[in-house]
Design a protein that fits this description.
about 450 residues, mainly beta, 7 helices
Amino acid sequence: MLLLVGASTVNAQYNSLGLYNPHFTFNKAEFIPSKLGVNQSKVEFRIIPNGYVYGANSLLSIQTVMYPTTSGIDKAVDNADGHSLFGAGVEIPGVAISYKLGKTKELMTFALTNKTRALGNVLLDDQLLKLAWNGNKQFEGETIKLNKFGASSIAATEIGLGWAMPLKVGALKMRVGANLKYLLAFAGGYVPQSEVLMETATDGRYISFQNLNYQANVALLDDANTFTGNGFAMDLSTTLHFGKEMNASVAVLDIGALTFDKNTYSYTGAGDVNIEGVVIDNIFEDNTFQIDSAILEGFHSENDSGKTFSMGMPSRLVVHLEKNILNGDEVKHGIYLTYIQGFNNIAGTTTRPYFATGYSYSLKKILNVGPTVNYGGYGGFGLGMFLSAKVGPLRIGAGTNAGLSYLIFPSVTKSVDISFMTTWVIGAKKEKAEVPSIE
């Protein structure tokens, strides 16, 4: 069943753990480039690939996905209102290195990073879900709009050149940062959002799809070419410091696009479709339809291979507030609030707002631990935690944004995820920092 297959492959959305765990500045800089270099290390590098597996759906709870029942799916579909989102992804941050310029005070920090992403999402109008699950007879005598259908996928690796530097404007201390990324795509797909009007006769035995208009573009893995497309993207951010203990950041991420020009296939269709003599109860169970006639009016379709197409990146706005509680010059406690707003529904983000909060406790900078709570995006409510340790120059940790909520509230939680992070720090500077280190 499509609903269950789609839901069972999805599991949260943004790895905000990187923002809340002070051991990992590379992960923090992925969300806020101006946070690059905020610790006291001269050189920081990552040689062990990190990982984050995530996803979510806004329709079915994890319990319903794992133990599906007709009544459970009936309830979810009947209560659907607006549109449903399905998303999944794997992010693998690879080799990275940063270097801080300046003998006694930081002038600027540069970084060269790599990350590979495989992301996918589907947006379905809830009327379309109800049609698929309960059939067309429920809409007899009505004309309904089946809109907001779309899908996208990205599989790409990126090379990033980032920088951040401190600035002082009068009494205001701040940091600015940016990350320019060159992307090489292995594969991708894009179905722009489309809509169609559906009319069902009073007896339910006549269906008319009006203004059916769709377009689908895919670039498949190619044996002859390692990459099927490329593109550029940029991240920009600013951090303002209010004393030693509080700061606020604003970032805009993934401003850019991918263009696919190898092993591409495009499918388009437009027109009206009128079907007589059919009643559909459930498209997942009815394998044969008795149709008296199907009339295509002004309908045409086109398939084209080798056609270049482009798709935007998952652009989003990040607003982040951070409150540090000090023990001397050491950050003992951290309190965080984050808001993320996607600008589109491209794989990796959504226009549904995402709110998260977290707390970190640092035991002499050796052990960091804390809980997180988030709401919005693909999956709604999530409760998680993170834990990391410093072993000499190595920092290693793991966490989840939604794993605890799945264990505690399986009947309402609609997302699960897990992350693994490492970094190496060498050459820690000895001078007192103007802004406390969060190493």
